[in-house]
Amino acid sequence: MPLITSRQHALVRQCRAIARGDANRLVLDGWHLLDEALGAGFALETVAARADVSPGQRATLERARRAGAEVVRVSASVMDALSPVQAPTGVVAIAARPAVDPRALAAPAPALVVAGFGVQDPGNAGAIIRAADAGGATGVLLDRASADPWGWKALRASMGSTLRLPVLRDESALNRLMAWQADGLRVVAADPDASARMYDERLDGPTVLVVGSEGAGVPPEVLRAADARVRIPMRARVESLNVAVAAALLLYEAARQREWVEIV
């Protein structure tokens, strides 16, 4: 297995370029994300790891090699240059972005899709995807004004959920909502000014839960297109919730109504 010791190596330039944004590839930082990518069958191109790996990590690298990835060893200083995070975990991988079929987000029935509009912070985008995975959602839709869910920050925030759940970033997200409406899904938008609480709305059928940015909220045109608007009850002195927290609360109310999640 080759050892890379120069920070001027082409792999360093490649990783940095992809971390800044690439339409076709993504950067995975961390053993957990690498394990998730292998389990999900992602097409791994290159895996770079420090030489001081544990036996379990060596087994993971061997899995990656058998899956077709080029596996290389790098020095600690090169890993610092490869990794986009402040405290590198010791492994970085380059993988191809998956092609996501929009129909996969609404399957199986009854669909439970989370749609985010204007979620610009990648940490929030990743946290929404993580909550969607935990709360039983069938998929996540983000509009083009939202952060790239396949960017390294959002991927780390999702803790691997983006690699398991159908996630689509769509420049025509509103049209996608309306197409789902035509297919029988109800669009329920979070709106702090709504008269109905989230407990008052039926969320056990095919549903799209819509959240927006903390500042602007769900865009007016999306609110107008929604079948229902609901608010999350809060004390009067609290103006708003973090968008990922709001999405999680709506998801778990839907899960409660679907009677699969245990409420103690």
- How much helicity do the residues have? 25-40%
Structure summary, number of beta strands: 11
The Cα radius of gyration reads 20 Å
Going by CATH, the architecture of the largest domain would be: 3-Layer(aba) Sandwich
H/E series:
EHEHEHEHEEHEHEHEEHEH
Net shape? elongated
CATH homologous superfamily caption of the largest domain: SPOUT methyltransferase, trefoil knot domain
Largest sheet: 6 strands, parallel
The percentage of residues in β strands lies in 15-25%
Number of contiguous helices:
9
- How many structurally independent domains? 2
Distance between the termini: 52 Å
Could you please say which CATH topology of the largest domain applies here? Alpha/beta knot
- Numbering strands along the chain, what is their spatial order in the largest sheet? 8-7-6-10-9-11
| Poorly predicted ranges | none
Topology readout:
Elements: E1 3-4, H1 10-20, E2 25-29, H2 31-40, E3 44-50, H3 55-66, E4 70-74, H4 76-82, E5 91-96, E6 112-117, H5 122-134, E7 139-143, H6 152-158, E8 167-170, H7 173-182, E9 186-190, E10 207-212, H8 220-225, E11 228-230, H9 243-258
Parallel strand pairs: 1-4, 3-4, 6-7, 6-10, 7-8, 9-10, 9-11
Antiparallel strand pairs: 2-5, 3-5
